[in-house]
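=== RUN LOG ===
request id: a7f3
mode: sequence -> structure
chains: 1
length: 338
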Amino acid sequence: MMFKKVQSILTAHQAFASGFFTIMLIFSISLALFGCQSTPQTARSIPSIQATTPPNALTDAKQDQSISMRPSHLDDTRYWDQGTQDPLRELVVQTPDQLDARVPLRTNPKIVIVQYHNIVYGRTGGEYNRDLYNFEHDLVFLRNRTRIIGINDLVKIKSGAMKLVTDASIITFDDGDLSIYAIVFPLFKKYNIKATFFIISDFVGTVGYVNWSQLKEMSEYRDARGEKLFTIGSHSLDHMPFDQIPASQITYELAGSKSAIERNIGTSVKFFALPFGAGAGRKDIIDAAIAAGYLGIRTSTRGVASPDTMDLYNLPTFYMSNERADILAQQIYSLMGR
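=== RESULT ===
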């Protein structure tokens, strides 16, 4: 009797196993014939300011990758997917002709001077901080839509010695925060991008600011063609607003800061940035700047300049606040009338 029960149980298990095997076999055949029907996950898109590479830009993908992926102390700090959202593939080093081909030709070119303070690694709510992610996307926009020039080029443009056929941009940094040496300097060397650093001379070498040897290194740097990329300008001795100090102190601030920077870096200082933008357009400030040997003053007045009408001693700017890169790009283009 016991043997018959055991035999009955074994028969039942065999039947179940056979049925389960048959079901799994049918399921496997169905997958092979019809495939998975689930909707694939949509990948995050690259920000809209990243333009498509033009036909005459570098097309060798291997060369592109070898340039954009060269080791850098910044690489470990970038926190987006290098495979799909790497703006540095748009900053790949190109010849001057290839760079010019990226920028639309204009019959009425405009010049935008963009103003930064600090560059930081992570997202921040600080008014003067620009995070590295959005900063690099700013550079992509400026390289694709304008010709990035040096601030000294304004003198040539004003005199007619240099003619613009595209919109132009000038990248400036105020104060002398240490990030201009730690982050901006290596990044701009790698991609041959020009910039101007307006320095508060009394702050040099204090906590959080560049020192004189770092400024001298940046000022003396030349690219592979022997071209100077970085210009040092003055942002006064101690960052006092010029609408709150007497005329004699204004003269002292202009001449003293210029002399200190020139003495320590060994090159002439030609441009001044007003602290807080205070006193823009004032004749006494302009006269004192001319007497001190300055060729121009950058204000904090929002706007863009035209080559034929710009006032070198009342230059407008566009402040790069802590907004998304595409928002600022749209605002710049709107100021330019594009």
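=== NOTES ===
The first helix runs from residue 2 to 34.
The longest strand covers residues 168-175.
=== END ===
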